Amino acid sequence: MRTITPLRLILTLLAAAAVCTADSNWPRFRGPSAAGVAEGPATPVTWNADPSAGPVANVRWKTPLPGLSHSSAIVWGDKVLVATAVSSKGQAPLRLGLYGDGASADDASEQSWKIFCFDKRSGKLLWEQTARKGIPRNQRHTKATHANTTLVTDGKRLVGFFGSEGLYCYNLDGKPLWSKDLGVVDPSPLDLQWGFASSPVLFEDTVVILADDKKNSFLATYRSPATAARCGARRGPPFRSEAGARRSSIAKPDARRWSPTGGAT
After folding, report:
1. In sequence order, what E strands does the chain have?
2. Contact 196, 212 (CB under 8 A)
3. How do residues 65-87 score in pLDDT, each as one tens digit?
4. Between 20 and 30 A from 110 (CA), which of 21, 148, 163, 174?
């Protein structure tokens, strides 16, 4: 069983300012429009941040990041932001490789769900916030973490969604704006628990989340914790999104089409 200890995870920024030039941003999972494509000058295609593996190459800076996380870093302006979950035991098990069993990880210790903000040019820590501290409400897969989702920002607000651990909104200076407890969200199959991984989306002034629960899936929009629209969606077969369905989100084939700004259409 491989374990990841605090300060073992390393956040790296490539030379040539990683995927973001001085006037571009990477605000969400897979970047602008979730396309996974970065506009601008060519970036390196090889790099190495581990001196034991050879000469360090194409790395501008690196900084330790505590805990265990699959959350991708996002970039806005001169800020790099990332989420993580830190175990009170000081280490978290992570089992890698190919294997057939689908057991949940033995990682039910108290966790701190944290958000870190670094200076993009130097790697200096600008601020950190603890969104929640407590015993996880769900277990996770042995290859997963308690912080699988990626943050999202529009330059004014920063939103983190940790599934059963809640939805959190900050400004880019780390000031908490609001939060929402959605209760237990369990997307795992059968009687297994593998964790949550659906990242939030920001559309204009609205936060959009998809909570695919095996008993009560829903799509929800928020402007604040007091103003929420929710669309129930029964689980069904794999779905195909509609071509040209602009300004709309499709949850499941038997769910209504849901506009982020207005409700069912």
Report:
1. 2-4, 9-14, 59-65, 74-76, 79-87, 92-94, 111-119, 125-134, 152-153, 157-161, 167-171, 176-180, 201-203, 206-211, 218-224, 227-232, 258-259, 263-264
2. no
3. 898 888 999 999 999 999 999 88
4. 174
Residues 6 or more apart whose Cβ sits within 8 Å of residue 262: none
Give pLDDT tens digits for 190-241: 666 777 888 999 988 889 888 877 777 777 888 866 665 555 444 444 333 3
- For the entire predicted model, the pTM comes to 0.79
Q: What share of the chain is helix, strand, coil (3-state, %, to 5)?
A: 5, 40, 60
Handedness of CA 153, 157, 241, 238 (dihedral sign): positive
Q: What is the DSSP letter of 243?
A: T
d(CA 129, CA 175) in angstroms, rounded, equals 9
Distance between CA atoms of residues 257 and 231, nearest Å: 9
